[in-house]
Write a structure and sequence with these properties.
The complex is a heterodimer of chains A (385) and B (331). With 385 residues, chain A is an alpha+beta fold. Chain A has three domains: 114 residues, Orthogonal Bundle (Butyryl-Coa Dehydrogenase, subunit A, domain 1); 106 residues, Butyryl-CoA Dehydrogenase, subunit A, domain 2 (Beta Barrel); 128 residues, Butyryl-CoA Dehydrogenase, subunit A, domain 3 (Up-down Bundle), CATH 1.20.140. Chain A has 13 helices and eight strands. Chain B has two domains: 166 residues, Butyryl-CoA Dehydrogenase, subunit A, domain 2 (Beta Barrel), CATH 2.40.110; 157 residues, Butyryl-CoA Dehydrogenase, subunit A, domain 3 (Up-down Bundle), CATH 1.20.140.10. Chain B is globular, with a radius of gyration of 20 Å. Classes of the chains: A alpha+beta (385), B alpha+beta (331). Chains A and B meet through α1, α9, α10, α11 and α13 of A and α1, α3, α5, α6 and α7 of B.
Chain lengths: 385, 331
Amino acid sequence: MSEAMQTFNLRSFEPPEGVAALRKDVRAFIAQEAARADASTRVNSWAVADAAFSRALGKAGFIGMTWPKKYGGHERHPLERYVVLEELLAAGAPVGMHWIADRQSGPLLLRYGEEEQRQRFLPQIAKGELYVCIGMSEPGAGSDLAAVRTKGVRTNEGWRISGQKIWTTNAHNSHLMIALVRTEEGSERNAGLTQFLIDLSSPGIDVRPIIDLTGGHDFNEVFLDDVLVPDDMRVGEEGAGWKQVTAELSLERSGPERYLSSFGLFVELVRAAGPDPDDSLAALIGRLSAEIWALRQMSMSTAAKLADGDDPALEAAIVKDLGNSFEQEAPRLVQAMTEAGDDLLADSDLARMLAILLQVSPSFSLRGGTREILRGIIARGLGLR
Amino acid sequence: MSESDAILLETAGRLFNDARAAETFETAWGEIDAAGFASLLVPEEADGFGGSWRDAFSVFRLAGYARAPVPIGETILAARLSHDAGFDAVAGACSLAACAEGRIENGCFTGVFSAVPWGRNAGFVLAALDDQLIRLNAGAAAVNENQSLAGEPRDGLAFEGAPVETARLNGADVFGLAALLRTAQIAGAMDAALAMSIDYVNERKQFGRPISKFQAIQQSLAQFAEEAAAVNCAGDAAFAALARGEASFETAAAKLRANMAAGVGAAIAHQAHGAIGFTQEHELHHYTTRLTAWRSEFGNDRYWARRLGRSVAKDGADAFWPGLTRRSDAA
Ligand SMILES: Cc1cc2nc3c(=O)[nH]c(=O)nc-3n(C[C@H](O)[C@H](O)[C@H](O)COP(=O)(O)OP(=O)(O)OC[C@H]3O[C@@H](n4cnc5c(N)ncnc54)[C@H](O)[C@@H]3O)c2cc1C
């Protein structure tokens, strides 16, 4: 043990000058555009799709912030974008409509797309007008994503794609789905896969709702029956789908939404506790404060590494899993230790938020990669597999 | 990391490893003292090393990683507090008391310091008494020797009319700084116990293969790594906050997070080691008992959680996020 091992180095979060002013702008924007969001929206904001809000956000220059201006972007620093994201999440603004396109679809096109695709789609995404969903999972391919079977066959018109995607969040509101498709017949596992931009209004597409356990409609099944997809909608090289999807997952896992998606619960807890809480409530608030603060440091450090061009896949897995665990434990603790937890039907913001989160929080450690899969990634990083 | 930082850490790592091998304070201290670590946080103008608070985090963390049997962190903090208070620089090991009780009359202190780390070996000891920082020569005390669960000296010092130096506290937080020292040591000890656990599960074979190949082992060590990451990040960030000024929020949050991590880490390390880790002979318990003892020292979970929770509640629900961001944006 002469070389002291360290699994996680703090990278300083050093955004350009003017971050305080930027925060002020975002806060003013939210106060104007999302002031009346109700409690259940505020606490699950990242899952709430609101086209009007997304368009206003795009107009204000807060979508596609880091992209080149020629694609409708704003050429801001990645850490400025991070600041905007955390402000939106902390306020519980309804960001679900454009979130995926801004977080991963746009960057995917910037990195692997054709020039023509960038010009065609990025400006509309940045305006908050074009929405994209993730077509990765299938009935037989969940954690084992390399088991996808949706099939693409080349024809003289382009591609014919058939199969089924599932758990497709926001497909019912989206214009495009970026789908991972098996394009080489007989290929196995992560070989022979290609990504496509699929226009969801194409003939042969059937989007069917899947109602979640709260009665809500966020995700869907997407059936593809011999859908014609022109070759200019292929993203990246034929057969390069796995490499691209891995990069996409890195973006999907590393953001502040993995610990901050239900921050509103903490705010309402503090409000309900008042200025002079009893010992046990004070201890609960203290514990949650410490965890939020520590997660924020870890998340900012990961963002700083991404901004420096590193690939902090291990750190992202650590922050996502810790963040998910925190966001699952917090509602349970609040339920166990507060008056609101005594009556989940009570007419208070805290009770309403609690009721929602106790139901939806199990999904936090499933979506974007399960706890077990993330820990497997960490274990590999530790040299155990 | 600058070149001088790299040299500092390389030297600290080597010296602390030697200190562990030397086993006792008496055999270990000389070399560390000679290397001049005590003045790490004293400015260069005052003939100190002029290191930063983040340097201090790294050095304290390495002391925890090596479980060096010396109060090097206490000595470094005492030197800085002494400098800031205008006390003369002193040679030798120093320490800090979590708790001082007593009174000062005519420049002399009568009272007790409890659980002073290496009190028996310290030249001078510092503590906060009401709104004053006080410093005493430990040689004047009757020593009531005691030790932590991990066998580290934690001595009672009783003074009877002993000459005392005093200065206004001026915002200096002796207890909080010591809590951050333990936070950094926990960060180091977590990584050391994690490294030890990884080595062990890769070596130990059951059912015909290394136990690291079992997914249950992989998943629990991954969780261990997450906790180690959290306390390392929290510690580093709290020391960075010290460099910016007032850091009472970060101090409370970091020690509390470290305490929580220490409990998880010690438990997983033992589970992964099986019975051999439960023996006196095996190295593991040196780390797990320190993690356990340090969790209680300078504020257990209850202490910091209540304190932090009260201050957050007092500021109000809508002040929390703006406060959090204002502090980090000031960096
Ligand atoms: C709210 C929500 C939104 C989603 N949105 C989308 C979306 O927009 N687009 C999309 O493509 N997908 C989406 N998903 C799907 C998500 O990516 C999958 O749920 C996830 O990858 C897990 O797959 P699964 O549900 O089939 O579970 P399974 O893979 O069947 O896993 C079931 C359990 O087995 C465990 N397990 C599986 N394999 C292993 C292993 N090797 N070792 C140990 N344990 C294992 C898992 O960890 C889990 O606990 C969404 C899911 C949710 C819950």
